[in-house]
Each structure stands twice: as C-alpha cells, then as structure tokens.
Amino acid sequence: MEYETVIGIEIHCELKTNTKMFSSAPVSFAKKANTNTNEIDLGHPGTLPCVNKEAVRMALRACTALQMDIEPLVRFDRKNYYYSDLPKGFQITQQFHPIGEHGKIVIDVDGEKKEIGITRLHMEEDTAKQFHYDFGTMLDFNRAGTPLVEIVSEPDMRSGKEAAAYVEKLRSILYYLDVSDVKMEEGSMRCDVNVSVRPKGSDKFGTKTEIKNLNSISNVQKAIEYETERQIQAIESGEGVKQETRRFDEAKKITVAMRSKEGAVDYKFFPEPNIAPIMLSEEFIKGVQDNMPELPDEILDRLVNTYGLTTTEANILVSTKEMVRYFTDVMKYTNNAKLACNWVLVDISAVLNKENKTFDECPVSPKALGDLIAMIEAKTISNKQAREVFEAVLTGADPKQYVEEHNLAQNSDSDALMKLVEEVLNENPQSIEDFKAGKDRAAKFLVGQIMKKSKGTANPQMANELLMQEIVKR
Amino acid sequence: MNFEGYKLEIEKSSRKEVCEKALEKAKAVQPALNAMVTFVDYDDSYLEEADKDSYLYGLPIVLKDNVNTKGIRTTASSRILDNYIPVYDAHIWTKLKKAGAILIGKASLDELAMGGTNRTAYTGPVHNPYDTSRISGGSSGGSAVLVASNVVPFAIGSDTGDSIRKPASYNGIVGVKPTYGRISRYGIIPYASSLDHVGYFTRCIDDAAKALFVLAGRDDRDMTSSYEEVPDYFKNLNGDLKGKRIAVLKNVSDAVSNETINKQFNALLEKMKAAGAIIDEVELDDKLVRTMLPAYHIIANAEATANHSNLDGIRFGMQEDGDTMEEVMMNTRTKGFGKLLRQRFVIGSYCLAVDNQEKVFRKAQKVRRLIVDEYAKFFNEHDCVIALASGMSAPLMETTADEDKLSDEYLVAENHMVINNFTGYPSMTMPLGMTDENMPIGINISTKPFTEQLLFNIGKGIEDITGLADMYKEVA
Fold first, then answer.
1. Number of cross-chain residue pairs from A and B with Cβ atoms under 8 Å apart
2. Does chain B have fewer CB atoms within 10 Å around its N or its C terminus?
3. What pTM, to 2 d.p., does this model score?
C-alpha cells in the first residue's frame, strides 16, 4: 500500500527582550547559573507577574509576518503542573485566547511552492534548566521566565523535506523580524514534531506520535523520515502505532519512545487572576505593523527581480541579515549585481571566514568594494589588477586613490589606443603578414607590443579589438 | 490612644521608649492571646529616609505574617514556611518604612490566610482579648487582637472573604478592606488572587482615614493596582450624615436571630435617620445570596490551589527528604500543610479539573458575575450599603467547627461580607456595641469603588453616634 505522512509542528521560540516575560530580571544565555533571576522567576511567595510590553510587541510582529488574525484583548492563563523546573507550579501562557490565529507561510520545496497553515501563536514563559548528574539534579533559573512564543502549524506538511523547509522558513522570518536568536543548537528555538501516516488518499488521520526537542533542521527531516518508515512498518506488521512521545537519537538516527500519551496530565487551565485583560489600542498595533522590517521573501524578491541574481545566489545572500545588508550597501556604488554578488560570496566571505568576523565587522567598506567593482566594470582596471587593489583595500587603502597613485588605470581611451595600434602595425609589417598567413601567435605578439608601448595601462581586451579592426584593413 | 495620642506620647518620652513599651506589652499578652509569630526588636535604621510628617511616623505597628519582610522570618502561619526568610519586601512594608512606622512583630493568621477562626495557625489558635476562651476570628486574628488589646494602634491584615472585617467585628475595632487595586498586593503571600485585598485595623475612623493615605497607590509590580489618585482622606473627613442615602441589606437583617444585636442595629439606624441620613432597605435575590458562599469557596480554593503550588520545598521553605525531586515535593507538601489546607487543595483541584471546570469553577464565576451586577444596582440609588458584620459575637473556641453550614444564619448572616470580595468594593467594619455576654459586635458598611472618602465619612458619622472610637480591652 502507498502511504502518506502527515506532519504538524510546534515551535517554541525565545524572544530576545531585555527582560523576562513577567519580571524585570535580565534575559541571558550562558551566564553564571542563577545570577539572572529575581524573586518572581524563583516563584517566591507573594510575587506577581507584570507583562513585558516589548514581548507583546515582538509577538505582534511575528503575528503580522505570519499573516495572522490578531486578538487585541491580551489574556493569560495558568497551566498547572508540578515539576522541579517550574518555580510557581504553573506556567503563565495563553491557552484560551492566543494573540494570533489563522496564519500561513509559503514554503518552497524543489521549486514547488506550498502554503502551510499556522493554527496559533501565543506568548508564555520558559522554565528553568535542569542538569542531571550522578549526585543529583542541578537547577539553573536564569532561563525561568524568559519570554517564549509558541507557534503551532496545521498538519499541512507531507514529508520530512517539507517539514524542514517549514522550520527553515519560520526560522528565517523570526530571524529577520529580530524577535529571536533562533539558534536551535542553543535552544532559543525548539521544535516538536507530530507525525502520523495514513493510506494515500484517505482523509482520516492516523495515530500520531510526537517527537520532542529536535535540535537542528536536518534532524527534523531525518527524524520524520525515520518515523514515517517506523510507523508504516508498525502498521504493516499489524502491531499498530501507539500514541506516544518520542525523542530522536542523533547517534543512531532513530526515534525512541519516551512516554505514553494515554492518561495525559490535566493541566487545569484557568484564567490568570493577577493579570487583568489588556486591550491593545489600534495605535499600539499599528505602531508595530508600520515598523515591520523587510522580510526574507521580500528581500529575495528584490535580489532576483531588481538585481537579476539567481534564486540560489539570493538564497545564500539572505542566510544572514548582515550579508544582505552589506550587499545592498555595495550596490549603492555599482550597478553590476552579478559581480558584486561574486565578490561578496567568494572574496569577502573568504576574508571574513579567515578572520572569524561577520559582515558587520568587514574590513572592506561597502563603498570600497563598490568602487572597486565599478572600476572593474568600467574596465579601468583589469581583473588581475583588481586583485592587487583588493589586497591593498584589505589593509585600509582607498581603491580609487590606490589605482591613481600606482598608475594602474587602464587606457580605455580608444583614440589614444588606436594611435598605439597604428604605430605598432607600422613598425611590424612582418607580423601582419604572419597573421594573414594564419599565425595566431602574431596577434598575441602585436598586442604585447601595444601593452609595452602603453606601459601596461592599455586595456588588453580593447587593444585586441582595435588591432583586429585595423589589421584586416592592411 | 489614637495615632495623634501616640505622637504626643513620643514627644513626651521618645519614639524608642514608646515602641519598646509596645513590644514589651506584646510579649506580656502573648501567653493569653498567642497573637504573635515573630517579635521584632526595635529598629529605626531606615527612619533617616522616612517622611517625618507621615501620619505613621514613629508609631509601633504589626504586620500580618503573610506580609513579606526582607530578612525577617515570614511564615504565613504554615509549617511549610516556618523557616522562610524573604528575599524582598512587600510593597506595603516598603511604604510603611518610608512612612517611618516601627515594626514590633509579625502576627498570627489562619494557615496561609485560609480560614476564618485563626485556629489553624501553625503556632496555635489566637484568643479574643474580651474573653480568651473565645476565638479572635480570622484569618487576620493576630493583627486584630493586638490592636484590640491596645498593644499597637495599627496592624496590617488581608481580606479574601472577610478576614479583616470579621475579626474586627469580634474584637470591637475598625477593619478596612479598601477597593480592589487600591493597595498593592505585591509581596503579600496570597490566598486567592482575584479576591485578596490588603487592609488594616485601627481603633477609630480618623486613624483608618490616615492609614489609607499612607498605604494606597499604584505599584507597577501589581498589574491590578490602580492609578486612581490618593486623596488625604483624613483632611477631607466629614461625618455629616445629612442626605446620605443608606441601604440596609435586608437579607442579613432577616437572618440574624440575636435580639440584643438586632435592637442595637435598629437603634443605630434610627439615630442615623435622626442625623439626616435617608435609610432604605434593599434585598438581594435569596437564591443568589445562598449560592454566594459555595461560589466563593470554589473560586477561592481553585485559585489557592494554583497559588500555593510554588510551595514545594525545592527553592525555599521547609524541605522533606526524598529520592527524587518529585518525592521531595510530595513529602514536603504532605508534611508542610495542615489537614484543612490539604482538603482545600483537593477541592480546588477538583473544581479546576477538565471534566468539572465548566460545571463547577466556571459556573461559580458566572454566579460571581451575577452577584456583582445585582449588587452594583444598589449603588445607583444609594451611597452606602449597611449590615451587621455578623449575627453573633466571637464564638467559643471549642464550638467553632459546629455551625450548621446550610442555615441562613451561616450562609447569610455569617458570610455575606464576601460580596465585597466578589465586587472589590470598599468595605469597613466598625464597632456597634456589646452583646449580653459583653462581647463586641460590629457593623459593616460598603460604598462604590474608589469612594473610600465617602466610606470614612459615613463611618465617622456612625462613630459619632456610637461613641465607640478607641475602644479596647486590656489583657491582664
């Protein structure tokens, strides 16, 4: 039988606010344990939550980018359960009225576009971090209370590849919105995947399993692909799929059962009494929506349609905000996008890699690179000379000044060049004969003579063209 | 002696002497009343920064032991917090320090403020100064009896059902529960967040008016606290009852059977009329009144169950051993709470469970909403609703648990004051007189939100009639 995989994804994403969701303690990563907490994060008696306005703004920005319906009446609920990483014994979340619903994004898989629905986006707070050792468990509350948005997709994906594309797209959007670090390896973006299989063509869902805490996009795909095969085998063998939570074993590249979902915990959700509903004014929402940063799709569109780059080139450029910004700045000084893209992706990237720097710290200013490219484009300097100039620019030289000072400017003045061509032809009648007799070497010799006469400043291509024009007339 | 009297006394002797005398007295009455959990030695290190013109400057005060005081043990009268030293100050303690008040101790309460008798305190029951075989009432029992026995002129309490106003009635003092949001709750160990109010006890209306001026105001750490301006209630105080439209809550009058109490209440109403007040009766639908207490219990226990989930022995407070974190939490909670609390947590959990929530918790919230809407209507035509705070004086220690929980006396007369926790309206209990057994009995008055000035004005008018300002009972 042919099967179809059905995938839905829940993503938890830490917001990069200065302070926590409900307290004024700083949001931090990799700081000394329990130094970025206060009485609220530790759940001390008598503390009360206070909603972080910036977190609401960031959530709104995400809702807007995901084309969601926005619920202007912000309400929070308590999710009650006992766990040592949950200081208050409940998590403040938005169970009943998420700030965003009914959104969508478009993914691109092997050139095919597909729309993926987003069920909801809500705000909540993160838990503490646990470290298990032989002697016991250590708790670090620095993460406790960090603002999160949870983004839940519709079960619209049908393959590991689509799922990976969805996560990548979402990651890129949240990254460009500047609302999160979206580092899966550091846990600032966490991914749970619901997978089920069903006979192709069926409209009923099969029993699903949830794979928790996938820590990279490639693992999302691998885990789903493994899980799909596992479930198909379970069905075909007659054993059936059990509803359960699983984890991905990275080393073995398999999914492993963690716990059964039957007899699930009752979280006893109820409205948070310490936070009265907050009505977001139209002005507040508009303030966020009028100041949206450019999204990756818009940038891609600009790179391809305005600058004429290929989709592949454009996709590489948008992989970091700094690179796109740098490229865009370079384009203020040159019109040759292809050439600029090449320099950015190859030469500049190599330098930055070597020095372990980002594009924001690039030793070559966009203007310098733009000017350099403009000179190549205008054939003022040759590619070979461009290398030399580039090396100088790396040590702080201004490209135009350098070319001038070192007398590198290629002679592209055709009248002047023509004079030289005529001189050389007059001086070398034998070579003309040889050329006409079919000896290619003669032409090379003549160009060489022109270059020599110009002291190397002649544009070799132009010299060659003019020579060909002239030689046939002789 | 009122606040003014204390100030004169301080001028005559010294602040330190007056406050230490109060502390001595608190220690002296401890064997009889058992009111204090922790005594606090005289400390005026923060007075440099304090406002010397404050009404409370230099005065000895008591905090209910659910008010967090940094560095000073705060137990909420529960075993689970018996060793808890807070790492931060409650908003009101900060305010009181800025006002220059001197803390002499932390007073007993029903465990985590979840009770009305003060018999469930981890340190044992608190006794009534008028008759130590009787209860203080709760949950702010310790605070109430320390004011009633003339130890301090002011004590902080908290009121979720009637936890300030009932003990005020039993102990013949003034108990104020202002509008929800008037005083920040930040740093008060909670009971039920949507019903919890911070309030206080004094022995006269003047002091009550002065105290609110000190305590009220917006606190950014409590999102439910109000931006409403805080007037100087004492300066504006005016006890003229002329033209004041007073509504008598008939449901309560009908439910009270004690003749002496009824007689005194009616006499007061007559005198108010004579002073120019317009007296009317209003009545709530009987069904609503009788569902009020069950609805209250459901909401309060549900919120409390969640509120107290932080008490797990992991980060602070008492910790019992266990092989796993889960076991530590379970053992700590089993041994840390009294039996009554564990029962209430079970009830709270039951009310919130996914299968019950709609027909129990949500329904109780609907009842609350209906009651709030009905009650609000009374204030279209009236300035104030008045009723007996209780149909009886403080019960004897041993009979307390025996009330018939479905009688009108219990459902209406003894528990009607929760209506002001449902609505958040300001509400105050003050002395009315004495019963045949020479025990105090109080009346309760309530006004519209943020009209505490009106509440104090009417209270002042009533106090002028009863003449019961600065009533107290010295304990031998």
1. 103
2. C
3. 0.90
